[in-house]
Amino acid sequence: MAPNDSAQTTEEAKDLAAGRRKAARYIVPAAVAGVAAATIGLVPALAASGDPDLPKITAQELIEKMAASDTQQLSGTVKINTDLGLPSLGALGDLGGGSFAPKGGDGGTGSSASPGSKLMELASGSHTLRVAADGPDKQKLSILQDTAEYSMIHNGDEVWAYDSASNEAFHSKDDGSGKGSGNGSGKAHEAAPKDLPTTPKELADEALKAADETTSVTVGGTAQVAGRDAYQLVIKPKQSGSTIGSIKIAVDAKNGVPLKFTLTPSSGGKAAIDAGFTKVDFSKPAASTFDFTPPKGAKVTEADEVEKGKGQEHGAKNHEEFKGLEDFQGLNIIGKGWTSIAKIETPGGEGFSAPKDGEVPPEAEKFLNALGDQVDGKFGSGTVFKTRLVNALMTDDGTVYVGAVTKDALVKAANEAK
Questions:
Q1: What is the phi-psi region of residue 338: left when phi exceeds 0, alpha when psi lies from -120 to 50, beta otherwise?
Q2: What is the model's pLDDT at position 261?
Q3: Domain end among 271, 290, 309
Q4: Residue 20's pLDDT is what?
Q5: Is 312 within a domain?
Q6: At a CB cut-off of 8 Å and minimum separation 6, what does 361 contact?
Q7: Does residue 392 come out as left (phi exceeding 0), alpha (psi in the -120 to 50 range) or beta?
Q8: Over the chain, what is the mean pLDDT?
């Protein structure tokens, strides 16, 4: 019989909070993506071949099962599909080294192996990853491409990223503080797969943080993922106005490991975020899995070189357009739970300066217009820039309202702020 239970009571919500605190110590660096995060549209390629008959379990018991899991060793293949409703980012390709594109397209590191630019590719389309983990000090994530492969390897205090297409590598040291080598550059922290918000476990943790009185948490049956029997934990907003319809987490019935994460928008259609294993093995990976030596002739960029050299010139504090924003504090949160909205103003409440005609390159203007809807109300007028999950209203006087809420919710918030 497939398990099922009702939405959580106030008392159960308190128990859920305790379960989430336990979940904070649960470590399974099984790398998959999303962003928010994290923030993937999936056809049922990862789905089940029949619903397994498992013992009944409550949502609280399932969360505690996740928290109690001590699984730290695994290897497998992950399928990721992303559909956030964004127009093609190729529209910005002609902007070259302007303010909308870092020089070299590599975040200013001078290396095509820099993790930042590669991981951005996971924000759209379909991707296949190979992952492996052996405790908190050994992880590997590889993005498989048609004729190439991009890998990030964390082995002890060594962090490597390698792009076979360009034969370039990015290297840094991890001193255990999360700041990496050099004077706190954080490049090792950025490169290490364990720190990327790209796993079913990490996506699940973020979703469970919202499981308060504004949230319904239930067990919605069973499934089979990558040949493993799993329970389905279903999280839904109780509030109206959220762009998130539901989040479904497939949890391994035996060891409590999240195997699949699916986020469906309230607007319906295919999932916006869906990431899960197609193959998974919970035995210890071979030690050689985490070995890496740059191939002969490979260009190697050191994190320290980036921090001391040209990488610094791309920092916000050193960029003319960002001067005066170091002490930015113009952020206020409106509402709570799933329908909370961030209201953003510059110091003094003057708002951001809305772009004037001719100030934005034509390619960028076309891209922005593809996202935007003109709206008006008591607040005046403005433009709502939309995706399937996160929407933002920029008023003509420069105030920004942003959140995982509908266009109507943003307009209402702007009207009530006046």
A1: alpha
A2: 93
A3: 290
A4: 39
A5: no
A6: 95, 98, 100
A7: beta
A8: 74
Beta bridge partners of 393: 384, 401
**Contact, 139 vs 269, CB < 8 A?**
no
Task: Check if the beta carbon of residue 104 is closer than 8 Å to that of residue 300.
Answer: no
For residues 50 and 253, give the distance between their C-alpha atoms in angstroms, rounded to a whole number. 15
Q: Which of 290, 307, 340 is the last residue of a domain?
A: 290
Beta bridge partners of 234: 218, 248
CA distance 175 to 179: 7
- What's the domain count of the chain? 2
Q: Quote the CA–CA distance of 225 and 257 in Å, as a whole number.
A: 11
Contact 291, 155 (CB under 8 A): yes
Range of the domain at 402: 324-417
Asked if residue 311 belongs to a domain, the reply is: no
Residue 359 has a pLDDT of 60
| CA 184, chain centre distance (Å) | 23
pTM score of the predicted model: 0.72
**Cα separations in angstroms, 155 against 129, 141, 215, 293:** 19, 12, 39, 12
User: What angle in degrees, to the nearest 10, is found between the helix axes of 200-209 and 10-23?
Assistant: 140
Predicted pLDDT at 225: 96
Which residue in 60, 17, 7, 13 sits closest to 231, CA to CA?
60
User: What is the per-residue pLDDT across 123-179, written as a single tens digit (0 to 9) for each?
Assistant: 788 999 999 999 999 999 999 988 899 999 999 999 999 999 999 999 988 655 544
The 8 Å CB, 24+ separation contacts for 377-384 are 377/411, 377/414, 377/415, 378/414, 378/415, 378/418, 379/411, 379/414, 379/415, 379/417, 379/418, 382/414, 384/410, 384/411
Encoded tokens for 326: 């170091």
Distance CA 327, CA 346 (A): 10
On the 0-12 / 13-18 / 19+ scale of CB atoms within 10 A, 327 is exposed
CATH of the domain at 271: 2.50.20.10
